[in-house]
């Protein structure tokens, strides 16, 4: 799926700004044929939750309504016009001038619809009804229930089956783009790198709609100079003396694609791409043939006021802070991030593990963490959850959206699912097959595993290319006891290496809640001293394990969660605060990571 851009044949209208907004109390039906009955507004793109002073709005579960209006400049009337949502969280019904024009379920992937047939000359009224309901059929998974109040009015409840606030709304850009009536619909770029000869054969596949009699593809280098070109909707172009896209040293080529008719360019689109090779071999994660070591984070799209809304200055700052620390990668825990963030990572050379919103796939998840220590834990997740269809759909959507990104080095199919429970393998096998079949670049696949899924109990390790562990020894298990935690960390990593000698292993989460400014002479949990000691302990063990290929800690920054006895206005495992001030441990990690090379750390 193409990102909306201006090109010589395409224009772009941005619908960002103030939209009318109201929560749906489900008392009087709202008729999208009439203007939305409110004068209240919120800003788009952003989550709606933290934009007002109302607890009722912030914690509303059910439906909300947005509305804006726009005009289309006359010269565009003859063009094909497409309304495109970067995302709409979690389910959307879209009306133009009172008529339903599309519906989409899944809160973190884009969707679009042609609008020509529904436009009027002036004041087009665009209305969106959204649901933030999560249940056992959705991703993420929510515990959904209904009660009635004293007047018999239905109250909806969503208890997040995961550890982040259920922010919702029009969280990403909403745009209208134009194309000619014959247009380029999709471009797939697959670079095949010949490392020995510094050459790449780049397959460029173009899908078009309408009347073209020729497709021209020109590959431009980073300075805009043409490198090679050819005519065909499916061709392989060779780049000699190729500049590789390397972690922290990005190099981006552009494929300029032109659809022609009778020698005239009808539509054009320029797709950026990087040339790099990703493989898992002999328990190593190879990028361009060299063993890569992941240094970085699990993150969230989370910031003050914006909530989970697109916040580009924060994205830019986050990447700068990562680079400054010597980090080279992050995981889009626990959902696909904005397309703008992926484009930024392409430019900045940040390696991304791209995760689906499959989080909460464990029906017994809760604040009782004693189960983490269990070695024979089972639950009935796979008889209760009905998420397979949503999961399959989002795998397709995330790959369609992100397939050409050089920054994406691996797919994470799920976070902390009940892979230890009966039925897990049967659930995941078709999903891994699907991802592998759909990804034209054949990237490695993984899921991140919860502590009860260990070398003995995890039923699904055979499906992954890289063993990705979320581990909290010293925090949820053996809290404050770093000697015990060190032994448990070491014993488990050794057990994994022994049992799966061909698979690289990495940590995709490990961390300790830390209150900024809290200090302790006794290195107590929650103090900045404890956080640093915790990371020193884990680092020491990581360095002993040959097949250990990366450390992505939890979390880059403090973030908002639902309330609960373990959360003080959110999760405090950030090494930065929510406003991106460093905690003490940043100095230690910066020193460690700037001394660890991106390549060849583990021989
Ligand atoms: C986890 C989850 C993550 C939580 C984290 C924590 O294992 O994957 O979403 O926020 O633990 O801090 O408890």
Automatic annotation (TrEMBL):
Domain Glycoside hydrolase family 2 immunoglobulin-like beta-sandwich: 183-276
Record carries keyword Aminoacyl-tRNA synthetase: no
Enzyme Commission (EC) number: 3.2.1.31
Residue span, Glycoside hydrolase family 2 catalytic domain: 278-596
Domain Glycosyl hydrolases family 2 sugar binding: 14-180
Superkingdom of this protein's organism: Bacteria
GO molecular function terms listed in the Swiss-Prot or TrEMBL record: beta-glucuronidase activity; carbohydrate binding
Top-level EC class as recorded in UniProt: hydrolase
One BP annotation, GO: carbohydrate metabolic process
Keywords: Glycosidase, Hydrolase
Record has Hydrolase as a keyword: yes
NCBIfam families assigned: PRK10150.1
Family the entry assigns: Belongs to the glycosyl hydrolase 2 family.
Protein name, entry field: Beta-glucuronidase
Species of provenance: Lentilactobacillus parabuchneri
Lineage: Bacteria, Bacillati, Bacillota, Bacilli, Lactobacillales
């Amino acid at each position: 799926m193409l990102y909306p851009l201006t090109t010589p044949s395409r224009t772009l209208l941005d619908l960002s700004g103030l939209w009318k907004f109201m929560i749906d109390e489900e008392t009087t039906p709202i008729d999208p044929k009439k203007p939305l009955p409110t004068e209240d507004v919120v800003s788009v793109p952003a989550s709606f939750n933290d934009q007002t002073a109302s607890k009722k709005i912030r914690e509303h579960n059910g439906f909300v309504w947005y509305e804006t209006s726009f005009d289309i400049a006359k010269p565009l009337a003859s063009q094909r016009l497409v309304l495109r949502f970067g995302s709409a969280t979690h389910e959307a019904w879209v009306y133009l001038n009172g008529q339903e024009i599309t519906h989409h379920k899944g809160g973190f992937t884009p969707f679009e619809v042609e609008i020509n047939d529904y436009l009027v000359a002036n004041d087009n009224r665009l209305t969106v009804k959204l649901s933030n309901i999560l249940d056992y059929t959705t991703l993420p998974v929510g515990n959904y229930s209904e009660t009635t109040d004293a007047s018999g009015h239905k109250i909806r409840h969503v208890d997040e089956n995961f550890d982040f606030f259920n922010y919702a709304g029009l969280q990403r850009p909403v745009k209208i783009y134009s194309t000619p009536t014959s247009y380029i619909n999709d471009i797939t770029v697959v670079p095949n790198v010949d490392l020995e000869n510094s050459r790449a054969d780049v397959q460029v596949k173009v899908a078009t709609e309408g009347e073209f009699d020729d497709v021209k593809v020109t590959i431009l280098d980073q300075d805009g100079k043409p490198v090679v070109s050819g005519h065909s909707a499916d061709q392989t172009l060779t780049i000699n003396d190729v500049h590789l896209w390397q972690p922290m040293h990005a190099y981006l080529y552009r494929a300029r694609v032109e659809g022609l008719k009778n020698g005239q360019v009808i539509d054009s689109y320029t797709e950026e791409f990087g040339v790099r090779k990703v493989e898992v071999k002999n328990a190593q994660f190879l990028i361009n043939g060299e063993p890569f070591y992941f240094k970085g984070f699990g993150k969230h799209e989370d910031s003050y006021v914006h909530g989970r809304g697109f916040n580009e200055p924060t994205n830019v700052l986050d990447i700068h802070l990562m680079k400054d620390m010597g980090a080279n990668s992050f995981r889009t825990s626990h959902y696909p991030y904005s397309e703008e963030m992926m484009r930024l990572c392409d430019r900045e050379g940040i390696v991304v593990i791209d995760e689906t919103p499959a989080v909460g796939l464990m029906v017994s998840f809760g604040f009782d963490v004693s189960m983490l220590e269990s070695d024979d834990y089972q639950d009935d997740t796979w008889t209760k959850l009905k998420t397979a269809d949503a999961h399959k759909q989002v795998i397709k959507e995330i790959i369609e959206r992100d397939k050409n990104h050089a920054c994406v080095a691996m797919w994470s199919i799920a976070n902390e699912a009940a892979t230890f429970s009966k039925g897990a393998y049967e659930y995941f096998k078709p999903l891994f097959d699907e991802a592998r079949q759909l990804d034209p670049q054949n990237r490695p696949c993984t899921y991140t595993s919860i502590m009860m899924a260990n070398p003995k109990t995890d039923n699904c390790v055979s499906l992954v290319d890289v063993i990705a562990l979320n581990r909290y020894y010293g925090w949820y298990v053996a809290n404050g006891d770093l000697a015990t935690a060190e032994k448990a960390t070491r014993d488990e990593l050794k057990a994994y290496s022994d049992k799966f000698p061909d698979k690289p292993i990495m940590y995709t989460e490990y961390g300790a809640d830390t209150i900024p400014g809290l200090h302790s002479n006794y290195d107590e949990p929650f103090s900045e001293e404890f956080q640093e000691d915790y990371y020193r302990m884990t680092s020491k063990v990581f360095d002993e394990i040959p097949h250990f290929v990366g450390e992505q800690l939890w979390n880059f920054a403090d973030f908002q969660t639902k309330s609960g006895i373990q959360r003080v206005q959110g999760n405090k495992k950030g090494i930065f605060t929510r406003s991106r001030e460093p905690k003490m441990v940043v100095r230690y990690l910066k020193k460690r990571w700037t001394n660890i090379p991106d390549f060849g750390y583990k021989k």
